[in-house]
């Protein structure tokens, strides 16, 4: 067979709280406090966007 035969979807389990990002970068842009809610998925050291 030639070409793409299948595809899949993967979301990393590791999560980063957006408030932790704000606490580190709040001095730079105080206006982002409004959007610092929830969490963000984050890849681990052995995962990359090409092969996953």
Structure overview:
This protein has one helix spanning 18-25; strands at 15-17, 39-41. It has 52 residues and is α+β, with helices and mostly antiparallel strands. The chain has a domain at 12-46. It has a two-stranded antiparallel ribbon with strand order 1-2. The longest helix has 8 residues, at 18-25. The protein starts with 14 loop residues before the first strand and ends in an 11-residue tail after the last strand. 0% of the residues are buried. The mean pLDDT is 80.
What keyword list fits this structure?
52 residues, alpha+beta, two-stranded antiparallel ribbon, 1 helix, elongated
Quick structural gist:
The chain has 52 residues and is α+β, with helices and mostly antiparallel strands. The chain has 1 helix and 2 strands, in the order E-H-E. It has a two-stranded antiparallel ribbon with strand order 1-2.
Q: What is the β-strand count?
A: 2
How far is it from the N-terminal to the C-terminal residue, by CA? 22 Å
How large is the radius of gyration? 17 Å
Question: What structural class do helix, strand and pairing data support?
Answer: alpha+beta
Global mean pLDDT: 80
What general form does the structure show? Answer: elongated
Strand content: 5-15%
Question: What order do the helices and strands follow?
Answer: EHE
Task: Provide the low-confidence segments as ranges.
Answer: none
Total count of helical runs of at least 4 residues: 1
- Biggest sheet features: 2 strands, antiparallel
Strand order of the largest sheet: 1-2
Name the helicity range: 10-25%
């Amino acid at each position: 067979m030639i070409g793409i035969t299948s595809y899949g979807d993967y979301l990393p389990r590791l999560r980063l709280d957006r408030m932790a990002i704000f606490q580190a970068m709040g001095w730079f842009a105080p206006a982002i406090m409004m959007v610092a809610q929830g969490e963000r998925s984050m890849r681990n050291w052995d995962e990359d966007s090409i092969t996953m």
